TrEMBL record:
Gene3D superfamilies: Immunoglobulins. It comes from Goodea atripinnis. Residues 1-56 form the Fibronectin type-III domain. SUPFAM superfamilies: Fibronectin type III. This is Fibronectin type-III domain-containing protein.
């Protein structure tokens, strides 16, 4: 059975909510849904959207970094790619 966390936002002009939970691992998937309510009850829920908690920064740096000059206007930089990490790696910054 799925357990939902419920948050009541009692300001009708608000369209954003931030959930803080330090026990959640970085980049964990969540299913979310939203419903409006008033004094007469709760309206229908939105369709479920899957979102992810924030990512953590990579925990290690690339190794074996080497560079060489190719011309007056170009250099080549080479490194070993990072091993599989718990953090997601989208690319590198040189």
């Amino acid at each position: 059975m799925v357990k939902w966390t419920r948050a009541i936002i009692s300001t009708p002009g608000v369209s954003r909510y931030v959930l803080r939970n330090d026990t959640i691992r970085p980049f964990s998937p969540f299913d979310v849904k939203v419903a409006a309510f008033n004094n007469r009850g709760e309206g229908p829920f939105s369709s479920i959207a899957t979102v992810y908690s924030a990512e953590d920064v990579p925990s290690v740096a690339p190794k074996m970094v080497r560079a060489r000059s190719l011309s007056a206007a170009e250099i080549e930089v080479i490194w070993e790619i990072l091993p599989s990490l718990p953090e997601r790696v989208l690319g590198y910054e040189v």
